[in-house]
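re: that chain from earlier
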Amino acid sequence: MEVKKIREFLLWSFFLFLPTQLGYHFWPKEAYVWGLRLDFLSPTIYLTDLLILALVLFSWPLLKKWLKKEWKNKTKILNLGLVLAFLVLNIIFSSRPLVSFYRFLRLGEFSFLVFFLKRFQFSLWPQALLLGNLASSFLAWGQVFKGGSLGGIFWWLGERSFNLATPGIALAQIGDHLLLRPYATFSHPNSLAGFLLVSLLLLWGARESFKNKGFFKLALLFLGLTLFLTFSFAAYLGAGLALIIFLWQKWRQKSGLLPKIGIGAMLLLYTIVILFSVKAGLVEQKSLNERLVLAQNALVLIKKRPLLGVGLGNFIPAQAETLPFVRQDVNLLQPVHNIYLLIASETGLAGLLVFIVMIIYLIKAVFLKLSSDSFILYALCLILFLGLFDHYWLTLPQNFLLFAVVLGFINTEKNGILE
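^ sequence. v structure.
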């Protein structure tokens, strides 16, 4: 098998297994807080990491060629050097350097994936991503009907063991009935919802690569129903906003009363979905209180370490050590539910500034290379929007790598997503 075919097989496998989290956890002392071991602090090797590592090895001649070309751009090299120097200082001065170094390696993996996808043309990713999402969706429905995890082979793909009585499990209340919110192979239904929503946008943008249009539309409908089944309030908000903007862009090209009626109907439906979410118990006061406390803790940490931050991946131990009252609630042993506050608290205001500048640059790149209604732009903006309400785009493996995929597809002209 020639090397190019191997690279294509590795990429296809990566997109197929992207929704899974089969991995091996290590538990050094740095992964414990108050004697409790936390997944967020555990160095973990996932199947997707091994696939990316294999991709690096089988792409080394190409990488050297690309890097040699990049090396000629002195401005890029200087900027990269400054960022690396900043991250090294961030690791050295963090309270748990091992955790920061692990997150640094994750950031390197993220950067490689973006760099590689911008340059290596691979047209079969939509089929693999669709199959992976379909498998996750079937598992999600099975969990809801059973009222717990299915186990067996799904455990090997990353499914956790849980049921309706598991402490802290995510539930939705419809009338007098409690319904399990599905996890599939994700750490939380919200994480699954965000992954499904962005995947739907990418797949719809690549719809021309599917020959069987009937199967494709049925598959996307099934993914959409699974998204609804997650009862993720933030995902509902994001999906509604994206749909309204998309329809407005289509209808504004037409004259007459149709655009106003259509937008009015969408806003009405949007309001109904939000009211349903509140009625179903998705907007819980306890959850809101926890998020507010975490946000306040993040602001305290930013004020304490405004330049370098507390260290990559160090938000949880930093707030536990700095703010003793956190001990009153173990549920607070999690990252702040806002990626901007998380970046600012872990890498300082300088890190947040770098992130914002990068995002502005990427959005400008979308407008220059694609168009304002590109589904890549929708996907990127949705990630940034959902990042206001949760941390999973930076902390959980599937969403983190899907974020890299979206960035990698920007400026790419032959991946079938340019409509």
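Residues 3-232+282-409 form one domain.
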